[in-house]
Here is the input.
Amino acid sequence: MSDFVLGAGGPIIAANFRAIGLTISVLTVLAFLALFVRNVFLARDELGSEVELAANRRPYLSDEELEGTKLDRSLTFALVVLGITSLILPFYWLAEPGRQDGATDLKTETFEIRGERLYTGGAQCVNCHAAGGVGGPAPYVFQDADGQFLANATWTAPALNNVLLRYSEEEVTYILNFGRPGSPMAAWGTPGGGPLTSQQVEYLVAYLASLQVQTLDEVAINEYIASLSESEDAAERAASEELAQDVVVAADKLSDEIREEVARSVEAGEFETAGEAVFNLGLFSGFKAGSLSCARCHTQGWSLGPETSPDILEPGIAACGGGNPSGIAPSLCGGLEHFPDDTWLKPDGSWLEFGEFPVALDGSIIELDDKGNPQTGSLDEDGEPIGYEILDNGDLADCAFESGLWEPGGIAADAYPFDPDFTFVPDDSEDGFEDPPVLQVSDLNGTTAVLSGGRLGGDCTIVEMPPRTSRANYDFLYNGAEAGRGYGRGGQSSGGMMPGFGGTLPPDLIEEVVNYIRGLE
Ligand code: HEC
Ligand code: HEC
Here is the structure.
């Protein structure tokens, strides 16, 4: 997003003021020089002091003249000087914001340069995430619980030139600090036991921000376009239409590129539906180093590629999540169980347009609130409609969550079974992956809601998504999870690690992927 935040006006104005300031100082120096020269040449030698005026001296001004023309002239001169001073001061203040902007730009630039040095040098991010953050295969060594060598493999390191469109800066900072346990992504920050100071992590985040591609999020695009015509910078205001056009064109181009890749992979027979293709985007082609896929987190072994894990598209494995390696996200299998209410879809299975009201299976109309969230139909004490979803349990600030998945300690041994033969195949339910327990309202009644496996500690705000509609499902994919809140069954991680895809996938493809996960068995 950074490419449309920068304005060119600041430096230009600053340059003009510099020129004015320089001219004034040169003129002042010249005037002083002239005065000095005049004094030296025009002054005549003192001829001795006399009480009376000697013949060769000019009489000084008379009292009338002193209080009249001389005084007037001196006062006028003072007024002019005062006028000039009072004109220059406002100019100085006018120029001050430009100077400050210049300083901020300089700071951003310095951060980016230092970040880039760390990225390509010190921290060697470039070895796995490639130059410019486009991502690619990273070497990976499997070890057992005791750190003994098991096997070599490559693990696709996601593109980072869109990471801030998917995560907030805090979330990226969190990832840099704690890494991704169970993957090649180590904990880099001091809080996670890594070598980088928080200042260095900040440099890296600033550098990543400078790499970001065009966002596809319409809300962000519209906000940017609206901000152009109100910009303080005249040049930006003047070019606002062109700039707005550029952003729309760039977003369309990127959307088309993604749609073409999805269409290509379906045509090539890699996947059966567009939804499945989006879910696995880049599996065979390496498109955007898998950064737009869901399966890299929701399917065990996906990031190792189809050669190492040939079963990753099989029913019962694809999207069933959990487990090592890469099973950092919950199973989505049994999709309808997750979002059981299909009220957002029309009876023919097509999607409602925004603004159209969804119809429940019994034919009744479902009310939406002003944000488009479906309401339960019940009213609270104040007569306000009760929406689906959020169950508050304590204050977010009190949230002392424990997450075996995201903390530096790594994945809790009993959280998901790890198959040492790397088959990653939870093929029968007996020794395969088990979902965490479904969160019950009764779990939240006490001050602490500790779920089995120690994945969630007490007093977090927990967002259940009970009567889940495809709309709720869509919104969740669009926005992602918020750090400090646990979502879904068992309130999985509360690490905010489910990315938001509103900035990186076009809306029609998000719908396709919702259709796909809702259809999972
Ligand atoms: C040894 C290879 C390797 C190195 C070095 C490395 N990373 Fe990573 N990084 C990965 C892999 C692999 C993943 C994806 C892990 C997964 O599948 O969850 C990742 C994930 C990430 C993510 C999360 C992206 C997302 O979309 O999930 C960020 C941000 C990141 N790395 C930044 C960095 C930065 C900054 C550095 C340098 C300090 C760095 N990485 C160094 C391999 C590496
Ligand atoms: C970087 C890893 C990652 C990626 C990529 C990712 N997810 Fe997730 N997802 C998670 C995590 C972690 C959670 C658990 C959220 C929490 O509790 O914070 C989650 C939760 C979910 C849930 C809620 C599960 C439940 O039981 O209610 C759904 C649905 C989901 N993801 C779908 C998707 C889809 C579809 C995509 C691709 C468009 C995707 N995810 C991409 C990590 C990921």
In short: The beta strands are 136-143, 149-157, 375-379, 385-387, 390-391, 461-463, 485-487.
